[in-house]
Amino acid sequence: MEIHLAGHSKQSTKNSSLFKVANDALLSSAQIAIHNRNYIVNNISADLRIETNGLIVSSVLNKLFNTVVRNAQNSVILVSAKEYGLTILVQVKSKGLISPGLSEEINHACINAQKTGGIIEMTQCESEQASVAYCFLNVAAA
Question: What is the pTM of this model?
Answer without folding.
Answer: 0.82
